[in-house]
Amino acid sequence: MMRTLTGAAAERINVLGIRVTAFDLPAATAEMTRAIAAGRRAYACTCPAYTLMLGYEQPAVRAALNGADWVTPDGMPVVWALRWLGAAGVGRVYGPDLLLALSAASAKRGLRQYYLGGGPGVAEALASALGQRFPGLLVAGAASPPFRALSEQEEGDLLERINRVQPDVIWVGLGSPKQDLWMARCRSRLTAPLLVGVGAAFDFFTGGQAQAPRWMQRSGLEWLFRLLTNPHRLWRRYLIYNPKFIYQFARQAAGLQRFGDG
Fold first, then answer.
1. Angle at 181 (CA atoms; ends 141, 99), nearest 5 degrees
2. Does 3.40.50 match the CATH number of domain 11-146+153-204?
3. Residues 3, 196, 262, 1: what is their CA dihedral angle, to the nearest 10 degrees?
4. With 50 as the cut, is the pLDDT of residue 37 above it?
5. Using one digit for the tens of pLDDT, what is the confidence trace for 188-242?
6. Which residues contact 224 (CB under 8 A, 6 or more apart)?
7. Mean pLDDT computed over 124-140
8. Sign of dihedral through CA atoms 28, 198, 227, 53?
9. Residue-level pLDDT at 235
10. 158: exposed, middle or buried (C-beta count within 10 Å: 0-12, 13-18, 19+)?
11. Residues 22, 26, 32, 37, CA torsion sign
12. Which residues are within 8 A (CB) of 53 and not within 5 positions of it... i.e. 6 or more apart?
């Protein structure tokens, strides 16, 4: 039976043990904007096939994803999986697109943004780029923490600095699954209503990485573009984890394997 999306909170559908939110970009933007207005303490994970497979394989990542208020279908294979499982009207909720959509809504509503992630200076460059793109966008702050693990003292100091500037939305660009684990671990210690993990969006909008053409994104070929432009870093993600996802989801769709919510 096909399940149609409504204006209510979107349904979450189990894909390989991960409860993925069955909605599209406008519905995602509306739900997250309402959550901010209500003062909820929520977080959203953008979930391509790679992140979903990490959740399938690693209990800590699975717990972080299933603990999120939204797990968005970030890649077309995840969208197709949801449709196969009966969700009608599902569309891709891609991290960079969600960043733009919520930034536009934030500029209209006076919501304060914080950018956390990227290499040295990238978060600040992203804040500047989005401020130019969306006049009136309020920036509370930005930080690019070191790639190494922070000590408890360092992390506590970082969270205190973020809370001090009182953002409404914290954009987390630490890469997957690091950003998902960080949001799950730190959500209760941050006062901002909404945290969103958007991965490579920090580099896309500051010129650090090229984005795939829209036709490749729509046809599910963005992985090929990213692999060809950055093979040394991404070969494992796409050449190993994409086939793993196809195999495991085929088993789920055929009823050969069932998954709890983890």
1. 45
2. yes
3. 10
4. yes
5. 999 999 999 998 888 888 877 778 888 888 888 888 888 888 888 888 888 999 9
6. 216, 238
7. 96
8. negative
9. 83
10. middle
11. negative
12. 16, 241, 244, 245, 248
Nearest to 105 by CA among 30, 43, 202: 30
Distance of CA 9 to the CA centre of its chain: 18
What gap in Å lies between CA 227 and CA 243, rounded to an integer?
Answer: 14
Q: What is the pLDDT of residues 50-90, one digit of tens each?
A: 999 999 999 999 999 999 999 999 999 999 999 999 998 89
Residue with tokens 């043990």: 17
Question: Rounded to a whole number, what is the largest CA-CA distance in the chain?
Answer: 52
**Closest of 106, 53, 102, 101 to residue 78, by C-alpha:** 53
* C-alpha distance from residue 62 to each of 56, 121, 218, 259, 262 (Å): 6, 31, 27, 12, 6
Residue entry with tokens 């495991």? 248
CB 123 within 8 A of CB 143: yes
